[in-house]
Amino acid sequence: MRLELETNRFYLARYYSEAVEAAGGIPVHIALIPRPEFVRQVMADLDGLLLPGSNSDIDPLRYGREPHPQLGAVHPEKDETDLLALGEAESLAIPIFGICFGLQALNVARGGTLIQDIVSQHADAIKHEQGAPRDRHSHRVRLLEDSIIGQLAKTETAPVNSHHHQAIENLGRELVATAWAPDGLVEAVEDPRNDRFVLGVQWHPELGWEQDRLSQSLFGRFIAEARLYAEKKSSAQATALTSTM
Question: Catalytic residues, which ones?
């Protein structure tokens, strides 16, 4: 979830849950309670982890940098809860789908770094904060042909929306770039290991997912991977139970 500082409320835009449910999943909101035991217990009952966007920036001290003058608001509860959930997902090989801030959290969790402000830190950048209408496609991304996202799109490029002022600088461990904006910024990453599903995108497929085929394919693949994980987990539990009888 997200944190609204003015009212001390946890919240999340409806589109994430609606897209998950439409793809066949059961959405469960995780409160931003950054306690390892809480996150561990919640994650033990899940079959997939979706990391949504946020109206905050990850604390640059978490990736060894001092704060840039254009750094946005930092919400420690959001950072810590996301990183704890990612740690559990890595340990259990739970499918991960990161969106915008979620992609950036994934990269930081793997030891990567971020561009803190695209406009002032990336030469010749295109506009990445499009504003309203939020579901409008504002630029195209180039896709790696043999990647998961390339196979889902079935094309070399795809139009996407854009709502971010930060981006990946250096890739983290076990991550490869699979999509790029026209200015060279990384727009998608995947984990190349074949024993897990990890995919992150810099745009927002939850916006306009009802009309956008690639967005539907992304959520569909995530839920399919979660279903496979659930089946493997159930089979492993049944085998363990039988061996103790």
Answer: 100, 204, 206
